[in-house]
Amino acid sequence: MWSSTIRNFCIIAHIDHGKSTLADRILEATSSISQRDMTDQVLDSMDLERERGITIKAKAVRLAYKSPDGKDYIFNLIDTPGHVDFGYEVSRSLAACEGAVLVVDASQGIEAQTLANLHLAIENDLTIIPVINKIDLPNADPERVMRELQDIIGFSRDEFIFASAKTGQGVQEVLEAITHRVPPPRGDAEAPLKALIFDSHFDPYRGVIAYTRVMDGHFTTGMQIRLMATDKEFEVMELGVFKPDMHETQSLSAGEVGYVAAGVKNVQDMRVGDTITSAKSSAEAPLPGYRRVRPMVFCGLYPVEAGQYEDLRDALTKLRLNDASLEFEPETSVALGFGFRCGFLGLLHMDIIQERLEREFDLNLITTAPSVVYRVEKTSGERVEIDSPSKLPPTSKIRAIEEPFVEAAIITPSDYIGPVMELCQERRGQYKDMEYLSESRVRLIYNLPLSEILLDFFDRLKSRTRGYASLDYKYIGHFESNLVKLDILLNDQPVDALSCMIHRDKAEERGRQLVEKLRGIIPRQLFDVPIQAAIGSRVIARETVRAMRKNVLQKCYGGDVSRKRKLLEKQREGKRRMKQLGNVEIPQEAFMAVLKVD
Amino acid sequence: MPGLGLYVHIPFCTKKCDYCDFNSCSMDSFDDAREIVDGYLEALLREAEIQSAAARELGAKVVTVYLGGGTPTCLSEESLRLLVTAVLRVFPVAHNAEITVEANPGTVDSRKLGLLRDIGVTRLSIGIQSLDDSLLARLGRAHSASDSIRAFHVAREAGFDNISVDLIYAIPGQIMKDWKETLDGALEFRPEHISTYGLMLEEGTPLWGDVKSGKQAPCDEDLEIDMYYLAKDKLELAGYRHYEISNFALPGYESRHNIVYWRLEPYIGLGAGAHSYVDGERRSNLTDPTDYLRSIKSSGSAVCESEAFSKADEMSTVMILGLRMVAGVSEEEFRLRFGVSMRDAFGTAIEKGLALGLLEWDRERLRLTRRGLMLSNEAMGEFL
């Protein structure tokens, strides 16, 4: 293998800026896939990814490119997830590359997350190929977008490629730029093995398939390998590359990208970011940058029917085979019965898992409102982490509560600076910085509590900026906040699954909104149902769902008994879909009400 | 063997009302109305003959006959005479049977009513609905309040001493005063029987469309409930017995035909969309009149659906229907009929209804409470 002909690169782009289309054009140009197999946007293989137009998991594909210079090249295109939840996976994918194609929509300009990933790529010493895409659109302004990028990063004018992945314009230039600008991988094929895991998936026959970039040394089938972070050893059973289907090879050497299967039963043993080395002659130090990703967002998942509890456990176990960042443990709720407390990287990750559970495993679930991890210092001096409001110690035993904060970067047209700042202010944001990317676009930096972002922050941001703003954030640490637990009582009984943590100054308003919202959701029962919001024993808001007065079939049509029975059966079905709390029947959506309040 | 109820369906009206989703159609909608009506009556008589054989086999006497619709009185005198006499001839009808015909003001005159009386009809049910012309117009009724009053007096003059009137409340735009006036007006004629129905806005009807599009505001639910209880209190004070959720009668004038249904006693339905319940089996006929007559012509039957009731089905239906009657269901009768006590069969449902204040015991009868009348579906659902 001549590593001098290898080019390892990724594409950095905002959602809808054309990454997948460009990837498709590159795949076509390198004829890695026959037209017959070409479905649009090959890299996004999960149905969910296609529907949402985003890449959830990283993928890699090896392509053969014949350059006009007469030489044959091997391209390894490593796709990167396009969402803030998967920031760590992005950073590992970038670490596996020497170059990055930066795709920016000619009518939009760079977005917050793209900028964050671009900075990350530059820190990793990647060669950047800036591509202004969609220049065929009527409202394209490639000159403006180019100037903006020049101001931010300092590219020179002749580095830019103007392209339309849709029409194919500029694609050849992109291929040539990859060939001639991106440096070939360095690395010593004879040095001790050092290979970076940038993704993995679970295969029922071969066990964990680790996606890897060999930095130094080489793999051979049958060799004994060691994972440097988890310190586990395995024997290599199969090596190969993605074309894009798995294609077995005898070895993988420094500079190459491919996969390793070693009969590993558990994705936790082959973590993204870990370094694979040889068990016999180990590398001295692992590759930099490994960290264990921890879930940031937790929620309760409960089967609507208690009988599906075991099915839910099986389904979560199966999903976890493929997803080292998914955590879950059994949880019991007075209101909802037996379920699981599940940890996710973020809201999208949570959504995806929930949707897959319902779609692929045919489960009917109740999801409780998401929570972050709080750090509680007790009066005894003991410190505990809680991922659910119901685990909060009694108020009298709490000295302080810390919550996670993020540094959020928001890019917005300058016309909307006011509304964006207002929104951040409302969400307890601390202003950090503001930077003009061009005369019309601004990047605002705020420190915000993560919990405030979970509560439809992104939707609000979009609506206040007519959809123009983009958001990126990263965790910066836990800091003390004046937080209280807000309880909801139905018919005088606290409903644990409806409790939430909230800043004291906002508790009253939130409590009022919540009870009002619930009053609209909870159907009339045969008695008045008081809904109260309380902090400790102090009730701060109250509404009442008035008792139902009428549910009658006035006329029994000429002996049509079945009509009456059908009506009552339908009524019973409706009740069955509700959750019975004491003698109050609650529809499932009530448990998500905590999520969205106006 | 208890007596048999007999229902005969006439699916024709001069004009379909704006709230109606019953199995009926305007005669204007047929170019060849005359032919279809005649064909339909012919099929009815054919079905009557076949069904009467079955009735004879059961050895049961017909104790009530009910001609409903639609509007039976939109038929010609000649057709009515033919139909009623044939039905009374072919079925083994008890001599003291209750024989009811539904009538609409505007489709009756003294000749037609006199004829009905002569051929043995004992009871008339007149669809007055309201005594307010603007509300009648809103309902799309083809008659005025004075037509109703006239029809009632004509019926009395024709010799009917058992007359029921139907009244509708909760009409969009109706206020309490309107309802009170209609009740007072109806009480002035002192009918033997009064049915009061809260208007149901049935999907697809013109009135439903008006409400959906915002042209009419629906009646407020609290007002509707207040109207219901006003009728109950007012009519009871005037000497009427509230004997079923929507029905009131002077003592001894309860509708025997409807009681057959509510007790789940056997009944035979003739005509399009008619339902039967005989020998533990529920059946229904094709609803479309043309389909019906075609099917009767070719095979002698128009049954399109049938279902044998298990004992459990029958028990729960007896409760669901029986509770419609204000006197409720007798524990003793239940045990005699099924050989099991009501409390054993429906302990949970009864306990729940009692606890929620929807049901109560009146000596050995289980019945709806005053509040339970308007919440009966909540109580009945537990008996499924």
Short description:
Chain A is α+β, with helices and mostly antiparallel strands. Chain A has 13 helices and 33 strands.
How would you describe this protein?
The complex is a heterodimer of chains A (598) and B (384). Chain A is of the alpha+beta class and 598 residues long. An 8-stranded antiparallel beta sheet of chain A has the order 11-10-16-7-8-15-12-13. A 6-stranded mixed beta sheet of chain A has the order 2-3-1-4-5-6, with helices on both faces. The radius of gyration of chain A is 27 Å and the shape is globular. Mean pLDDT of chain A is 89; it is low at 53-58. Chain B is an alpha/beta fold. Chain B contains 15 helices and 17 strands. Chain B has a 9-stranded mixed beta sheet with strand order 9-10-8-7-6-5-4-1-11, with helices on both faces. The model of chain B has no long low-confidence stretch (mean pLDDT 94). Classes of the chains: A alpha+beta (598), B alpha/beta (384). The A-B interface holds A 526-527, 548-562, 564-565, 567-569, 571-572, 575 and B 5, 7, 9, 22, 66, 68, 197-198, 200, 221-222, 224-225, 245-246, 258, 261-262, 264, 267, 269, 274-277, 282, 284, 305, 307, 317, 320-321, 324, 356-358, 373-378, 380-381, 384.
Q: What attributes does this structure have?
A:
heterodimer; A: 598 residues; alpha+beta; Rossmann fold; Elongation Factor Tu (Ef-tu), domain 3; Alpha-Beta Plaits; 5 domains; 8-stranded antiparallel β-sheet; 6-stranded mixed β-sheet; 13 helices; 33 strands; 34% strand; globular; B: 384 residues; alpha/beta; TIM Barrel; 3-stranded antiparallel β-sheet; 15 helices; 44% helix; 22% strand
